[in-house]
Design brief:
single chain, alpha+beta, hydrolase, NUDIX_hydrolase_dom, NUDIX_hydrolase-like_dom_sf, ADP-ribose pyrophosphohydrolase activity
Length: 345
């Protein structure tokens, strides 16, 4: 077990691009936010056809992307036609899906959104065996891209509204989506002098307006699906504990294959699916004391984390974090059914 110090802080500026229509010429505008003002540079592009080629989406084997007439930018000087594309899903060949940018969504963010792994995975899920569109009774008509949050150059969060209707009644089903993709969390159990302890992190969570005790957790940073590697990295970043890949036990792997072997904490509004891992080890009591109350986290990412160590027998009462409670349930059932290997000595 290795303890490490937090990293130094770095800052970055905000910059984006948008497309404007100026005197029958499409213009690519680069905008940088500088001390509350906009400094922009416009570069003329020769023709509409060049722009469409420049910004065309890569073809996908599962669905077809097509530029709509609205993207030809027949715009007046007073108003802007919303950016729009259409997609053809395998289950809806005769009914293209319109994807539209809400007011305030830039051209570059719009293209990034519809070409992101978050959006493509959501479309894929619709047509899986248990997907909403699988049996043909539902239809996806339109998707409104409402917001994009970038983590560096990649999309971290994507918010959109999907119009999905029941073909028989014409009624819409609730379709507001906050997409953030897959994540991992780790239940760390340390045994010392006959007592088992769990490691938690305390963080300020703005959405709920308070600090929360929770398991170390994090989002996947890429599309490779390296769940175990991400779990090990998050533990080191949030607690200072360096684990080995071979030490990890995937508790969600014990779920039925029909579940996708991940837990879904809030399917009514969010696509997040979490893989829950278990680490067990023996440590000296001195390590438990050293871990209690240490400050960790990536300062450059705004992480201000305090580590807590609590007896496992009190863990289920200690926090309302759903990851903790799901991990306990999986661990207890896996133990009851004899699915776990012996506790390491």
């Amino acid at each position: 077990m290795v303890m490490r110090a937090p990293r130094n802080c770095k800052q970055s500026r905000k910059a984006w691009t948008r497309v404007e229509h100026r005197k029958d010429v499409l213009v690519l505008v680069s905008v940088t936010e500088l001390e509350g003002e906009e400094a922009s540079m416009a570069v003329a592009i020769r023709s509409v056809s060049v722009v469409l080629k420049r910004f065309s989406l890569s073809q996908s084997p599962n669905w077809v992307w097509r530029n709509k007439a609205a993207f030809r930018c027949k715009m007046s000087t007073e108003s802007t036609t919303p950016l729009t594309h259409s997609i053809t899903l395998p289950s809806q060949h005769s009914q293209p899906v319109h994807v539209v940018a809400a007011p305030g969504v830039s051209h570059s963010d719009f293209l990034s959104a519809i070409d992101s792994s978050l959006f493509k995975q959501w479309l894929h899920n619709l047509e899986t065996e248990t997907g909403i569109l699988a049996n043909g009774t539902m239809a996806l008509r339109q998707v409104l891209i409402q917001g994009v949050d970038l983590f560096g150059k990649r999309i971290g969060f994507l918010k959109f509204k999907a119009d999905i209707i029941d073909k028989e009644t014409g009624n819409k089903i609730p379709g507001i989506v906050f997409a953030r993709g897959p994540a991992v969390t780790v239940l760390i159990l340390l045994e010392s002098e006959g007592e088992t302890y769990a490691v938690l992190t305390e963080q300020a969570r703005v959405p709920v307006g308070r600090t929360i005790l929770e398991l170390p957790a994090g989002m996947l940073d890429d599309d490779e699906g390296d769940f175990v590697g991400t779990a090990v990295r998050e533990v080191e970043e949030e607690t200072g504990i360096k684990l080995s890949l071979t030490d990890m036990i995937d508790l969600t792997a014990f779920l039925d294959s029909s579940t996708g072997c991940r837990v879904i904490p809030s399917p009514g509004g969010c696509d997040e699916e979490i893989s829950i891992f278990l680490y067990r080890g023996h440590v000296d009591k001195e390590i438990i004391t050293q871990l209690q109350g240490i400050q960790t986290g990536l300062v450059e990412h705004g992480e201000l984390i305090k580590v807590h160590v609590v007896p496992y027998k009190k863990l289920w009462r200690t926090t309302a974090d759903s990851k903790v409670l799901m991990a306990i349930a999986l661990l207890e059932m896996a133990t009851k059914e004899g699915l776990l290997p012996p506790f390491p000595t």
